[in-house]
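Something for you to look into today, if you have time. Could you write out one complete protein record for me, on any chain you like? Leave the record below and I will have a look.
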Amino acid sequence: MRLIIVSGSQRQHSESAKVAAYIASAAGQYKTVQHIELCKYQLPFWDGDDKSKSAPGCDWPVISEALVKADAFVLITPEWQGMATPILKNFLMMCTPDDTAHKPALLVSVVGGVSGANPIAELRMNGCKNNKLVAIPDHLIIRNVGDVLNTLADEALSHEPDQSIHHRDKSIRHRIGYSLHTLHLYSQALGKIRQCQQQQPYAQQEQYSYGM
């Protein structure tokens, strides 16, 4: 099975990319894991015209090819002004059912403080309407992200260890493991749904490619 992790920070060397790297290392259930860091790709500002996806210099064809092959997704966004990032929302608007329909997604919010719930609520409300991604019930909020999921090299630069931080780090790593386990179960189940929908299509179901 194939997992695609999409990190939606618009900054290079971001905490979202750090979280994505940790999740990729922990996702041993999947045969293939690919990290798509959106800030490293050239994508147009979505205007509703499919022609822009194939414009010269646009990286969408490469991304779309990966999405089609995927069985599950992890969508990571930092919290910016209480919202998911524009680059991630633009990405979700560019996705079509052919890319992502009936595939499970684990939503992840990354925040330097103790908030982080608003981007999850936003993505649940409208991030999956027309692309037909299935956001699983579990989600992750990585709070105080600078203190957790760091490498041994990063930890060596710190001074005396803080036991409260160590406890939170251990806890969120365990929670990530649980969420990836749950996502994998959804991957298996929804794979059967996609297969059944292809083999037993509803009459004129192509009329309903968008959510109501």
Summary: The chain has one domain: 2-199.
